[in-house]
Write a structure and sequence with these properties.
single chain; 280 residues; alpha/beta; Rossmann fold; 2 domains; 12% strand; globular
């Protein structure tokens, strides 16, 4: 009966409940962002990235990560990778550029961005990706780091070790961080000095980075590499500027920023393109 209180309560709850989340369609895009509440893979229509050929000064890391990704895309064994080091030197840009390059070479590969805040949901994400064995996914976690009371690192072990079920064969993890061990050095030293068993306290957290098969270090660029990056951007976008002017302006730009990196090179080039009226 419609006047039954229980019936009315059930009907009200049904109206308040969110609509069922549609099953993700891996063919909807090449890139996705993972969101929670509710869980869903949101297609990314256009990824913000630069061409692989424009990433200079990181040749060894580029070649190593490209080879590893090609192995994975072709169904061969490959390692999870941690890209660590100087800020602004192209760690996240390299991951996105290599994803595009592998697809350009005819090896279908998806990339899924997972934010650090959503790490506790990674088990549910892996279940979603595991359900699409015909597709291969790079799980990308950018700017990864942990504080002393942060328990999110335990969730990351589900991706690296996979637990009893194992990591899905169609998933690989690429993470970037400014820290080689994903946490500040002073925090590691504090663990050693205050823990009842210093060795075990440090080992649990530091060993997280050991679970990455590839460690790729990124170091500050030289001035010549910095200028070469800008020249590469100018040539790629058709901006004519003589070497003397570029050198003087670019060095002044880096001096005002107090640093020299690929990011600073792109920021100078963005300013130059704006002054020249060139759309990027």
């Amino acid at each position: 009966m419609t006047d039954d209180p229980l019936f009315r309560i059930a009907a009200a709850l049904e109206r308040l409940a969110p609509a069922p989340v549609p099953a993700p369609d891996p063919d909807a895009a090449q890139a996705f962002a993972w969101h929670t509440e509710p869980d869903r893979l949101e297609p990314v229509a256009e990824v913000a990235r630069v061409d692989l050929s424009l990433l200079l000064g990181i040749d060894r890391s580029r070649d190593t990560l490209l080879a590893n990704t090609l192995h994975f895309a072709q169904g061969f064994p490959a390692n999870n990778a941690l890209l660590w080091g100087a800020r602004g030197m192209g760690k996240s840009s390299l991951v996105k550029a290599i994803h595009a390059e592998v697809n350009r070479r005819g090896h279908p590969l998806k990339i899924v961005e997972l934010s650090r805040e959503d790490l506790p949901s990674v088990g549910r994400l892996l279940a979603v990706l595991r359900s699409s064995p015909a597709h291969r996914f790079v799980l990308f976690c950018d700017d990864l780091s942990f504080s002393h009371d942060d328990q999110h690192y335990k969730s990351l072990k589900a991706v690296l070790d996979g637990g009893i079920e194992g990591r899905p064969a169609n998933v690989i993890l690429y993470a970037t961080s400014n820290r080689r061990h994903l946490m500040p050095r002073d925090m590691i030293e504090n663990e050693r000095s205050t823990a009842i068993n210093p060795g075990e306290a440090v080992e649990e957290k530091v060993s997280l980075s050991d679970r990455f098969g590839l460690w790729l270090g990124f170091h500050p660029c030289t001035q010549d590499e910095y200028l070469a990056m800008i020249r590469g951007y100018c040539d790629a976008h058709g901006i004519a500027i003589d070497d003397a002017t570029l050198r003087a302006e670019a060095i002044e730009w880096q001096a005002t920023r107090g640093s020299r990196s690929g990011r600073v090179a792109w920021q100078y080039f963005t300013d130059l393109a704006g002054r020249r009226g060139v759309r990027l």
